[in-house]
Specification:
Elements: E1 2-8, E2 11-19, E3 25-32, E4 36-43, E5 49-53, E6 56-60, E7 64-67, E8 77-80, E9 85-91, E10 94-99, E11 102-107, E12 110-116, E13 121-127, E14 130-135, E15 140-146, E16 149-151
Antiparallel strand pairs: 1-2, 2-3, 3-4, 5-6, 6-7, 7-8, 9-10, 10-11, 11-12, 13-14, 14-15, 15-16
């Protein structure tokens, strides 16, 4: 079991990851401000990562992105993909997902753009509106988000 804490704006999220009966899954429990709790079953072969941007806190694991609730009445929003997630970045239009061999842009939970890579991603950085990705072959790709499109 692992425990992480994300302090973000005026909220405190406690994230507890526990193994499930199926070794390929984990139970992720999110507690907001020590009072409100949500749980999800997530693919468990990759560690859970935490992120925050603007007003939104989020976490991701192998194949799921979960947007953290900001109040008791809010729901834990889960977005699933069919390839392992390595990094997730919140962008104005939605979500930029760096998967093992692809980059995807999601707007309103719909994939609007996708770039397939020739090899597995080793490093991904989002800086100044540019996503820079280096793959295992040493190739470097730079992408910008333009509305619902990715531009190289």
């Amino acid at each position: 079991m692992t425990d992480e804490t994300l302090v973000f704006r005026d909220r405190v999220y406690e994230v507890r990851v526990s193994p499930a009966e199926d070794l390929r899954t984990a139970v992720v429990t999110v507690t907001l401000d020590g009072r409100f709790e949500w749980s999800l079953t997530a693919p468990g072969w990759r560690a859970v990562s935490l992120g925050a941007s603007g007003e939104i806190g989020y976490l991701w694991s192998a194949r799921q992105l979960a947007v953290l609730p900001h109040a008791a009445e809010a729901e834990l929003q889960v977005i699933s993909v069919d390839e392992d997630l390595l990094s997730v970045f919140r962008v104005d239009e939605g979500w930029l997902l760096v998967c093992e061999t692809s980059i995807r842009l999601l707007v309103d939970e719909v994939e609007t753009a996708r770039v397939e890579l020739g090899d597995v991603v080793e490093v991904a950085r989002w800086e100044g509106g540019v996503l820079q990705v280096r793959d295992a072959a040493g190739e470097i790709l730079e992408l910008r988000v333009d509305g619902a499109r990715l531009i190289a």
